Amino acid sequence: MEHKQASATDGGGRQRARQRRHPGGRRHQALVKMSDEEYLQIAARAAVAGVSVPRLLVEAALAGDQQAASERRALVAEFLAVRRLLAAVSNNVNQLAMVANATGEVPAQLLATLHAVARVTARLEAATDELGGPVGER
Predict the structure, then answer these.
(1) Cβ atoms 15, 8 nearer than 8 A
(2) What number of helices (H) and strands (E) belong to the chain?
(3) CA geometry: angle at 87 spanning 84 and 90, to 5°?
(4) How far is CA 17 from CA 22, 40, 133, 138, in A?
(5) Cβ atoms within 10 A of the Cβ of 16, count?
(6) Residue 9 DSSP class
(7) DSSP code of residue 15
(8) CB 109 within 8 A of CB 96
(9) pTM for the full predicted model
(10) Degrees (nearest 5) of the Cα angle 75, 62, 24?
(11) Average pLDDT in the 39-59 region?
């Protein structure tokens, strides 16, 4: 089963970032044989990471562990997004606390804010699980 990528898209229509030029070019090519099941699993991981199958294999091999550099970049982006959400939610909680302290009444927006805290926490736990489990358990 030979698969080649002719375009610079990730299969979902999104543009993939091109590799930086390497001095002297990339002259070596490796043929990797795999089963249909192995290829489907690797191709799915490559699609999620937004890279080609060969790029995923190179990054995974050079990363020195089981996680490719592109997957780590995606996790870093997710953590930064969660950080921004957490900052926004923290701001909302502070504003609601100020209103509650000033008026002695709990604002109606408190329930929605608490749901937002739960969503941010769930995203953070999911991203942490991708790294190999909760930090306190490693």
Answers:
(1) yes
(2) 4, 0
(3) 150
(4) 15, 22, 30, 34
(5) 19
(6) B
(7) B
(8) yes
(9) 0.42
(10) 120
(11) 89
